[in-house]
Amino acid sequence: MRVLGINALFHDPAAALVVDGAVVAAAEEERFSRRKHGKRPVPFSAWETPDLAAAWCLRHAGVRPEDLDAVAYSYDPALHLGPEQAGVHDPWDHLRLTYAEQAPGFLAEGIPGLDPDKVRFVPHHVAHAASAALAAPWGGSCAVLVLDGRGERHSHLAGVYRDGVLEVLASQQLPHSLGLLYEDVTAHLGFLRSSDEFKVMALASYGTPRHAEALRPLVHATGDGGFVTAGVDLGALTKPRHPDEEWTAEHADLAASVQLVVEEVLLDLARWLRETTGETRLAMAGGVALNCVANSRLAAGSGFAELWVQPAAGDAGTALGGALELSWRGGEPTAPFPGADLGRGWSDAEIEAVLRTAQVAYRRSDDVAEEVAQCLADDGVVAWYQGRSEFGPRALGHRSLLAHPGRAANLERLNDVKGREQFRPVAPMVRLDRAREVFPQGPVPSPYMLFVHDVAADWRDRIPAVVHVDGTARIQSVDPATEPLVARMLTGFERRTGLPVVVNTSLNTAGRPMVDSPRDALECFGSGPVDLLAIGPFVVHRRWAHEGLARS
Questions:
Q1: Cα gap 438→1, rounded to integer Å
Q2: Cα distance between residue 497 and residue 503, in whole Å
Q3: Separation between Cα atoms, residue 371 and residue 386, nearest integer Å
Q4: Residue 513 has what DSSP assignment?
Q5: Neighbours of 24 (CB within 10 A)
Q6: Paired strand residues for 504
Q7: CA dihedral 454, 458, 460, 463 (to 10 degrees)
Q8: Quick check: 475 and 442 in contact, CB under 8 A?
Q9: Using CA atoms, how far apart are residues 60 and 253, in angstroms rounded to an integer?
Q10: Distance from CA of residue 406 to its chain's centroid?
């Protein structure tokens, strides 16, 4: 059975292809269009579909649009609740309903050969739930928790899967929404709504949650699997920050207060679900599930023995979830998530052709992992471009900027390279067999950077670039069985420095999507002070551009 999944209505448009129950391709439209998040999440853009991503998924698998058995669209217009009833106060929200109803026609127009009659509407939160529970390594049986900004009429789903069939146990109707509350705080603090929520999470570590007592009567769980988020006047707590203003302790305190209260609500919801279902395993999705600080509190205190978060937990992941849901309904039990490297990749010959066209000096490395390890040991910054691109917002060793973690100045250096705020942390990647020694508290394995871990006291001074102000780090554990090249690079770096950790941040600059194609990589490499580009088996050293060295 061949099922194409589509996310389009709100933000992060994406496509995913599931064939015979296995995920073979998934990609976000932004990687092709080079527009961050694909589009802004406003009603006027709701008609836009991820045509480029969908066409690539089909091409990659050798599937023609005519050969598809079904197309999953992750929003059901039959469940839409108008803005008056939902309390979202958007006079143009009716456009979303209109565009969702017309989505089959839009998709057929954008993907020639696609039969609009094969489009099936999958409820938004069901698609989120399926993206987690049906992709988790547990055979379609576990508890599931979804929290985001909004779907058709809800902002939350709590349920349980038994042999691939979902039973919904609770759902919170709008306008109550933890995701929308976090978006409101993001905008109040001068960041971009539906884009920069992770900045609020980072800023929270610099503050004190002194507004928590004022927020708790307004934002709390209700004891029945639901919650309220009503009547919060952010202006009464902290004056709004203009995007061009410097942040202050006042802004950090608001971020810290909201972060703490959201964590408390999530803990209450998860504990209710654990007691109600008796399950020991929890799968999570929805944009709120990208809050790695909250995820760590859930892993430690929810009562679930295992927690799995879908790495593309935001709306992009509903493309994957919709396809998995229809595949299971069609009698195809789904395979566990194969890893986040589900996007485009290029052969060595294709990469070399791009390098030749760009007329840059390059050479094929004798051992790219060892050459990169040496450059990092010499305190160079490396653009690392290997294999297929990641699905989701995290760079996981395929489209990364790497640096030496033992140089405290490298945090500021990388933020300058990327053109982003200095309070933003960078993440460590560490070989799986060394993770517990350096990061003793927090879930391991942690291959998708979706949890924070305490850094061992005797390591904090050794890897200062990756230690956040609160003594934590958002780690990626690297298993040599699944990421052998990255693991060899880490081994080579440790051999030279004694450090089993390398700084890893996404290969992009502020406001731009993560690089996807070799051309994107060259443009990013050329725009900032990066010392080495490791692209497939080839290397490009910045000094060559100045020394005029010929290709060898």
A1: 44
A2: 14
A3: 14
A4: P
A5: 17
A6: 402, 427
A7: -110
A8: yes
A9: 47
A10: 27
Please tell me the distance from the alpha carbon of residue 510 to that of residue 199, in angstroms, as a whole number: 12
Q: Is residue 122 a contact partner of residue 326, using CB atoms and an 8 Å limit?
A: yes
In this structure, the number of other CB atoms found within 10 A of the CB of residue 545 comes to 12
User: Quick one: three-class SS letters along 340-355?
Assistant: CCCCCCCCHHHHHHHH
pLDDT at 36: 93
Evaluated on CA atoms 34, 35, 36, 38, the torsion sign reads negative
- pLDDT tens sequence across 342-353: 999 999 999 999
Parallel, antiparallel, or unpaired for β 532-535 and 538-541? antiparallel
Q: 227 and 220 in contact (C-beta within 8 Å)?
A: yes
Q: What is the C-alpha R_g of the chain?
A: 23
Contact 388, 344 (CB under 8 A): yes
511 closest CA partner among 289, 186, 192, 200: 192
pLDDT at 551: 45
pLDDT digits (tens, 9 = 90+) for 205-263: 999 999 999 999 999 999 999 999 988 999 999 999 999 999 999 999 999 999 999 99
* Residue 547, token pair as written in the block: 């020394």
Q: What does the alpha-carbon distance between residue 179 and residue 149 come to, in Å, rounded to a whole number?
A: 4
117: number of Cβ within 10 Å: 9
The Cα 377–Cα 493 span in angstroms is 6
Burial of 305 (0-12, 13-18, 19+ CB in 10 A): exposed
Unique residue bearing structure tokens 């599937």 = 63
- Determine the distance from the C-alpha atom of residue 376 to the mean position of all C-alpha atoms in its chain, rounded to a whole number: 26
Beta-strand relationship, 14-19 and 156-162 = unpaired
Query: Can you give the pTM of this predicted structure?
Result: 0.96
The contacts of residue 350 (CB under 8 Å, 6+ apart) are 518
Q: Which amino acid is at 59?
A: R
Residue 208, both tokens: 């004190």
Element (H, E) at 367: none
Q: In 3-state terms, what secondary structure has residue 292?
A: helix
| Beta-sheet pairing, 532-535 with 382-385 | parallel
- From residue 259, alpha-carbon distances to 292, 298, 421 in Å are 11, 13, 19
- Residue 288: strand, helix, or coil: helix
**What is the H or E stretch that residue 160 is in?**
strand 156-162
Tokens representing residue 442 in the block: 């927090």
Nearest to 133 by CA among 167, 155, 157, 160: 160
Give the Å distances, CA to CA, from 104 to 9, 99, 114, 157, 217.
12, 9, 9, 26, 44
